[in-house]
Design goal:
It contains 19 helices and no strands. By secondary structure, it is an all-alpha fold.
Length: 295
């Protein structure tokens, strides 16, 4: 009970301004001349930030002279300038890709940081930038960095596809599809596989979808190199996942494996059944059989 008088005594002077600051944050941007510029900016995200489609981005005049200013812009504490710099990074990736290679790791780390930012405009812009960077560099993103920058980028995209803001989710889904479409499936599959056991159900489901897209691009040799049994067991486990998205992705994986495995087999069903029974528990094997109608 002693705490209440103390708490109630203090608010008389300091706490009123605090409450006003929290409630009036959107209004202060226009009416409070004493507020810093970066505090005025939050009113702009949904209003003034342009989400530029890839096809509408233009080449940069004299790009060699602009690379240093790009680095400075990416390091800026002004989030609007970071947005502008990310759009310029997209232009470099699309039209002057070799110039961006020396700082590509830095760009990816800025993307990761921006995706963690609570400002939706900055987050979405960074996701759109990742889409263009995947398409421009593909496999270079997997083997060019000494750090685990790509792993952080992958995790952030999976997180963004799993959140409630639809316009962010949709962009993240596009970026993941671009990632799968631009990269060799085997090394990418090795990166994604850890997320199918993630504690977050939605991340697990989105990872399963990316794995399904990877596997659909692979032939039997690629599947064997990854580990055919491990791939089948992973799909079998996902068939029991709580989310329908994950289960549907698992079915697609199973169908892709089945088609690759039985492509040269005369007795397709018998060969598949024998393989599953040899490598899975009876319950999991049965669940695999149900996916292929002919079985």
């Amino acid at each position: 009970m002693a705490l209440r008088p103390i708490d109630n005594a203090l608010p008389i002077t300091p706490e009123r301004p605090k409450k006003q600051a929290k409630v009036v944050v959107p209004i202060q941007k226009q009416s409070d001349s004493a507020v810093q510029d970066e505090n005025k900016a939050p009113s702009a995200p949904e209003v003034t930030i342009d989400y530029i489609l890839s096809e509408n981005l233009k080449a940069i005049p004299n790009p060699e002279s602009k690379i240093q200013s790009l680095i400075e812009g990416l390091d800026s504490k002004d989030w609007i300038k970071v947005c502008e710099s990310l759009n310029n990074a997209r232009r470099f990736a699309l039209y002057h890709s070799t110039l961006l290679v020396p700082i590509l790791e830095k760009v990816v780390l800025v993307l990761v940081k921006a995706m963690k930012n609570p400002r939706s405009a900055l987050c979405k812009t960074s996701i759109m930038a990742s889409f263009d960077i995947f398409n421009a560099y593909g496999d270079k993103l997997l083997d060019s960095f000494p750090s685990d920058a790509f792993d952080h980028l992958l995790l952030q995209l999976l997180l963004k596809t799993s959140q409630d803001k639809r316009f962010v989710c949709e962009e993240a889904d596009k970026a993941l599809k671009a990632m799968v479409g631009s990269m060799t499936p085997l090394p990418l599959l090795k990166k994604i596989r850890v997320y199918v056991s993630h504690a977050n159900l939605r991340i697990r489901a989105k990872a399963a979808i990316s794995i399904s897209n990877c596997v659909s691009k692979m032939g039997l040799e690629g599947m064997k190199e990854f580990g055919l049994v491990a791939l089948v067991q992973m799909a079998a486990d996902l068939l029991n996942d709580r989310l329908p998205e994950a289960r549907e992705a698992a079915r697609s994986v199973v169908i892709s494996i089945y088609e690759a495995f039985t492509e040269t087999e005369e007795q397709k069903q018998e060969a598949w059944q024998s393989f599953c029974e040899s490598n899975l528990s009876p319950i999991l094997a049965q669940s695999m059989f149900k996916i292929i109608p002919s079985l």
